[in-house]
């Protein structure tokens, strides 16, 4: 039982020291960090949306070519 308490005490002290260290060495305030994360996630969502729209356009063009009986070029898979 003593080993369990020693382990839990060490765990709590380590967690506390880690938290203090992170707060002291973080270059941005919490508000700035949240804003930066929000901006980067919005940019990522825009990039994903743009890529999906481009791919959708490509697939629709290929589908139309198939409907018209045209041959399509298949990229080789490596």
Topology:
Layout lengths: L1 H24 L4 H38 L11
Describe the structure.
- With 78 residues, the chain is mostly helical.
- It contains 2 helices and no strands.
- The longest helix has 38 residues, at 30-67.
- It is elongated, with a radius of gyration of 27 Å.
- The model has no long low-confidence stretch (mean pLDDT 87).
The tally of structural domains comes to 1
Quaternary structure: single chain
In this structure, how is the largest beta sheet organized? Answer: none
Helix content: over 70%
Helix run count: 2
Structural class: mainly alpha
Order of helices and strands: HH
Identify the overall geometry: elongated
Return residue spans where pLDDT drops below 50 for at least 5 consecutive residues: none
Beta-sheet strand percentage? under 5%
pLDDT averaged over residues: 87
The total strand number stands at 0
Rounded to an integer, what's the Rg over CA atoms? 27 Å
* End-to-end distance: 58 Å
Short description:
This protein has helices at 2-25, 30-67. It is mainly α and 78 residues long.
Key terms:
elongated; 78 residues; mainly alpha; single chain
């Amino acid at each position: 039982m003593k080993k369990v308490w020693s382990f839990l005490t060490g765990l709590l002290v380590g967690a506390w020291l880690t938290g203090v260290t992170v707060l002291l060495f973080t270059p941005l305030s919490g508000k700035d960090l949240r804003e930066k994360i929000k901006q980067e996630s919005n940019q990522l969502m825009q990039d994903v949306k743009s890529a999906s729209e481009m791919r959708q356009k490509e697939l629709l063009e290929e589908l139309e070519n198939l409907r018209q009986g045209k041959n399509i070029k298949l990229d080789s898979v490596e």
